[in-house]
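re the bet — no i am not wrong, look at it urself. input seq straight from the record:
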Amino acid sequence: MDFARLTLRTGLLFILLTVVSLTQAVTVQGLRMWPAPDHTRLVFDLNAPVEHSLFTLAGPDRIVIDLKYTDFNAALPAITSDAFIKDIRYARRGKDGMRVVLDLKRKVNPKSFVLKPHREYGHRLVVDLIDSSEAKPREPVRRNTDKLGKPRDVIIAIDAGHGGDDPGAVGRKGTKEKNVVLGIARELKKMIDKQPGMKAKLIRNGDYFLALDTRVKKAREAQADLFISIHADAFKDRRARGSSVFVLSENGASSEVASFLAESENSSDLIGGVSLDGKGDLLKLVLVDMLKNSTMEESNDVAKYMIKGLKGVNHMHKKHVEEARFRVLTAPDIPSVLIETAFISNPKEERKLRSKRHQRKLAKAIFKGTVNYFKSNPPPGTLLALKDRKHKISSGDTLSALAEQYQVSMADIRRANDMKSDRLLVGRVLRIPSYVTHDS
């Protein structure tokens, strides 16, 4: 009997020591910060799951994060121009915990959650600091005209895939998809913003994470007329090459590659820690709504123009529009396309994607596809929907003054009127184009 009791006590002691050992095994191995315009994300890299609590303090504004049974073995990130965090500090709390304090520049809405290991990432604690003004509902914007009833610009939402903790696909030389596509997106924005009657909105303009539904939300808040998501993904066969243009599928993927890429892109939220509960039913509702509004048909038309533009720059992986269930394409009222510019997993294409010159070529091809689509399909109420205007030359008129007056380029006035020089004849009637169709 005594032996049995001794054995029981020994077993209980062993279990207790094991529990204590496990609870003291958590170590913060890294701390990374990803600043964005409207939020900042902190990621604690851990060697095991962690128990934590988070609360705010005022006077001055602070956020306190308590980590139980944790040691801190990481360098603090450099804080330069973050919009929300003034300083980060930490100290031991008791015998078996750490306290991390974020000194704030202004009030924020904090959110924290833990993530299980996924792909190359281990256990993580994520703390998001969200601009408190983002919680306020925004006033709806009239889409056909601006607030004064004047014709408006066509708005193009440009979505550079991935970002922050999510690098996207990575080439053999270490080229990260998130960096390549942001370079292409920025070049595309420059071209669109120079185009009279068109303006671009970058969904992501830095190295930070955005959930897929947040990208769609930002495009809708911008009242975009077109959503372009830019990627450079990888495939299991390194021989795969070329560009592809995708639209949202109602029934499923149009090819094995399409299915593989959609699954890869949709997993971005798993990396970033977004709940996918109920997304299947939501997608069905979105598809029904999109069918009602013919958005899918418009998306397919846009995709065809994009293919024509890309053909002149890169080999096409598929010469027709592909379909797959990309969640980033689910805006019910905005024609949306996803462009796989190339396969970063292909060594030759990776080398091209690293080139700024090639990035500009890809951006120009997408730009041409965009302009040509809206040339044939100008949205009502926009400057592009205006018919070509007439101007009778008067004494004192100059080509540069007319270009400024009508917000078009001198080169396009010349082309529209087959002018060999900038000399203007008094009394002649010039045709003023309502949009630009070529480079100035």
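see?? Residues 211 and 269 are 6 Å apart (CA to CA). told u. also The domain at 387-432 is CATH 3.10.350.10 (Membrane-bound Lytic Murein Transglycosylase D; Chain A). so pay up
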